[in-house]
Amino acid sequence: MAKNAKKNILKFWGIHFVPQELAASPAPHRKAVFPLKSAKSASPSKTSGVSSHITASQKPSAPKFSGKNLSVKQKQKLLDELRVKIERSKHCGLEKTCTNLVFGEGNPDADIVFVGEAPGFEEDKTGKPFVGRAGQLLTDIITKGMNIPREKVYICNVLKCRPPQNRTPIPDEIRLCTPWLVEQLQIIYPKVIIALGASAVRGLLPDIKDGITKIRGQFYEYHLDGPGTDTGDIIQLMPTFHPAYLLRNPPAKKYVWDDIQKVMAYVGLPIPTKKTSGKS
Fold first, then answer.
1. In DSSP terms, which residues pair with 115 in a beta bridge?
2. CB 223 within 8 A of CB 234
3. Which residues, 6 or more positions from 44, have their beta carbon under 8 angstroms from its beta carbon?
4. Predicted model pTM
C-alpha cells in the first residue's frame, strides 16, 4: 500500500500513531488467535409487541444449511429466492407500515458481512441498506478505513422492514426476523460477521446480556445453524459500535478502528501502520 494511502486511512480514523505490532500476521481461516467467547441462546423474549399475534406455525425458521461449497452464482440464486420468500411472508406486522423491504446487498461470497439493526427512513425509501448518514459513514469505514470497495462485503440488517418512527426494534421483532438473517448468513458463509450495535448482537447472540461498550472488540463464536444452537460451522463474530452512534460520538471511532483491525487481520487484509520516529 502506498505511503500516502496509509496516511489517508489513518487520518480518516483520527489516528496519528499506530504501534507496529498491530500489523501482525493474520490467523489462518477459522483458526482463532484472538480471545474468543462463546454464546448460547437464552429463552425467547416474553416481551409483548406487534408480533404477539404470531403463532408458532407462522414463525419463520432457518433450515440447517451451509453455502460453504456453493459457487457465487448458486449463492446469488438462493439469496434471490430468499428475498422473494420474505416478500411473500407476513410474519411480524412491520410489512404493513414500511414502504420497501430492505433485504441486503453486496458480494454473495463475501468474507465479511456487516449486520445492522433495522432500516431507517432513507433505507425504507430506497430499499437499500445503509444509505443515509450512518450508511455513508459505514461506506467510509469500508472504503477509506479498510481500503476495499463496498461491493466486496455484504451488508444487511436483522430486521428487513423499518420500524415506525425509526424506533429501536423490540425483542419479538428481533426474534421473528432473525431466522431470515440466519439463512442469509448460511448462504453467504462469511469468515467474519461484524455486528453493528446492540440490536444486531441480540439477534445473533441472544444470550449476551452486557452492553455493546463492554462486549465490543472481542471475537465471539456464532454457530451457523443460528441462535439457540451449538451446531453448524462456527463463524467469528465481532461486535462494535453502530455508525449512527459514531455520528453522535466521533471520538468512539478509535474504538471501532481497533475492532476493524482485528477483523482485517483475521481475513488477511493489510493493516496500515505508522512507525514512531523514536522521539519523545
1. 156, 195
2. yes
3. 175
4. 0.77
Topology of domain 3-267 in CATH is Uracil-DNA Glycosylase, subunit E (3.40.470)
Low-confidence ranges of the chain (pLDDT < 70): 1-63, 90-97, 164, 228, 274-280
pLDDT at 50: 39
Distances (CA, A) of 207 to 14, 112, 173, 210: 34, 23, 16, 9
| CA proximity to 41, closest of 149, 201, 153, 243 | 201
Q: How wide is the angle at C-alpha 185 spanned by C-alphas 104 and 71, nearest 5°?
A: 90
Contact 206, 228 (CB under 8 A): yes
Tell me the pairing of strands 154-157 and 112-116: parallel
Query: Per this entry, what is the length of the chain?
Result: 280
User: Any idea where the domains of the chain sit in the sequence?
Assistant: 3-267
Rounded CA-CA distance 158/163 in Å is 12
